[in-house]
Specification:
Length: 202
């Protein structure tokens, strides 16, 4: 049996569709249930940011999560397979017409991706004040909460509709199948069988 933590929402749905193609079985969470057990798999329905935590602590063997979240958590987990879903980038958002002013003594950045933003500025040896937000990040520069934002960009529509421009990209992201080191070795056959089956339907 393999236990797999899935992030509630679109990535979980798209992942279960891949499982359906790979194993010729339908995998659907019933109503408000958080566990789905079928055909040798136990899927857990968890919050996006909690996926690496379940996998790191061994409550799940595997998980599906965006590289952006993995980078934020800094856990030592193995990236097994790029599922090629949830493709996006983590980039700056700036008020239209403005540029990142690297000569400023300190830049205030609003973001959900605190560590990614911090590392970016550390590399440039620049002082940064991070304001941690949990959603609607694009709002922050519009109401002077921050000079700019670091957020997920897919089509760029959210930024555009809120008078922001997409600035420099910090990293590209897509959903990956991840596994903890213990399960990787202890359940190697099951893990690799799953990897091969999923790879065949990507
Ligand atoms: N517009 C988008 N297009 C493509 N991928 C996206 C988009 N927004 C987010 N993602 C990817 O999907 C993942 C989940 O995004 P989602 O917005 O559902 O989570 P969240 O709200 O950050 O999570 P949580 O529920 O833990 O707060 C992100 O970490 C990112 O990798
Ligand atoms: O470039 P786009 O295609 O417009 O997509 C980017 C938007 O998608 C995500 O938001 P989400 O819907 O997850 O909302 P939240 O982060 O504000 O909760 C992200 O935080 C951006 O706001």
């Amino acid at each position: 049996m393999l236990t797999i933590a899935l992030p509630k929402g679109r990535i979980a749905e798209d992942t279960l569709e891949k499982f359906e193609h790979a194993f010729n079985e339908k995998f659907i969470f019933e109503d408000r249930k958080l566990i789905l057990e079928k055909s040798g798999f136990r899927f857990l329905n968890v919050r996006n940011q909690d996926v690496p935590t379940y996998v790191m602590h061994g409550a799940a063997d595997l998980g599906v999560v965006g590289l952006d979240v993995l980078e934020e958590k800094e856990y030592d987990l193995i990236k097994l397979l790029d599922l090629q879903l949830g493709k996006c980038k983590v980039a700056f958002g700036l008020i239209k017409g403005q540029e990142l002013d690297f000569s400023k003594s300190q830049i205030t950045v609003a973001t959900k991706h605190e560590k990614i933003a911090k590392k970016y500025f550390e590399k440039k040896a620049m002082a940064v004040k991070i304001i941690k937000l949990y959603g609607s990040i694009e709002l922050a520069p519009l109401v002077n909460l921050a000079d700019c934002i670091v957020d997920i960009v897919e089509t760029g529509t959210t930024m555009k509709q809120n008078g922001l421009e997409v600035g420099p990209t910090i990293m590209e992201s897509s959903a990956h199948l991840i596994v903890n080191k213990n399960s990787y070795y202890a359940k190697k056959d099951l893990v690799f069988n799953l990897k091969d089956k999923l790879e065949a339907v990507l």
